[in-house]
Design a protein that fits this description.
heterodimer; A: 115 residues; mainly beta; seven-stranded mixed sheet; four-stranded antiparallel sheet; 11 strands; 0% helix; globular; B: 111 residues; six-stranded mixed sheet; five-stranded antiparallel sheet; 53% strand
Chain lengths: 115, 111
């Protein structure tokens, strides 16, 4: 059974619209992350959460808003979509944030295409 | 400023040869260096990792060599197999666990 679920797998959106990317992890982890991968920037950190609190944000644009309704959920809302937002968005999780053996496990990704 | 740099961008070796992937970093506070590999249309997965207390970490055919003074590390894959063909990412983090990834090395192992 998949331990990190991301929905949808593929997403096509029009410029200016809003979408929510879903992430759920069943690893019992306390920290969750969002990364973005595109041809321009292979793997780019966006956000980290620990115990449902935002810990790090390296996304310049406020159009990207993470939302954590439960400890094992970290969704990503993207508003006013632009073609440059086209990328694969990976959710990841780890046991905790900053632990010595804190491997991050990646979900399967959501591939977003903005037309 | 790119925190982690990788070279070469792509590398082709023959089956049985040793592949050497290079990585360097800027931030001297980085204290954990995982290597991830990614197969086409899949997500990155942890391959092997090292902490600065060691200058070498070995796991089967995969070995990381670490040079703290020069802020460099390399991943050596001995007896390369076609199944090793993937993109390899060097990453680095300090105690906040934000992973900074390099741009990746695409390795092709020819049979």
């Amino acid at each position: 059974d998949p331990k990190i679920i991301q929905k949808p797998k593929y997403l096509v959106a029009v410029t200016g619209s809003e979408k929510i990317l879903i992430c759920e992890q069943y690893l019992g982890h306390n920290a969750m992350y969002w990364y973005r991968q595109s041809a321009k920037k292979p793997l780019e950190f966006m956000f980290s959460y620990s115990y449902q609190k935002l810990m790090d944000n390296q996304t310049a644009s406020s159009r990207f808003q993470p939302q954590s309704s439960k400890k094992n959920h970290l969704d990503l809302q993207i508003t006013a979509l632009k073609p440059d937002d086209s990328a694969t968005y990976f959710c990841a999780s780890s046991q905790d944030r900053g632990g010595l053996q804190d491997t991050q496990y990646f979900g399967p990704g959501t591939r977003l295409l903005v037309l | 400023q790119q925190q982690v740099r990788q070279s070469p961008q792509s590398l082709t070796v023959w089956e049985g040869e040793t592949a050497i992937l290079n990585c360097s970093y800027e931030d001297s506070t980085f204290d954990y260096f995982p290597w991830y590999w990614q197969f086409p249309r899949e997500s990155p997965a942890l391959l092997i990792a090292i902490r600065p207390v060691s200058n070498k970490k070995e796991d089967g055919r995969f070995t990381i060599f670490f040079n703290k003074r020069e802020k460099k590390l390399s991943l050596h894959i001995t007896d390369s197999q076609p199944g090793d063909s993937a993109t390899y990412f060097c990453a680095a983090t300090s105690n906040y666990n934000v992973l900074y990834f390099g741009s990746g090395t695409k390795l092709t192992v020819e049979p």
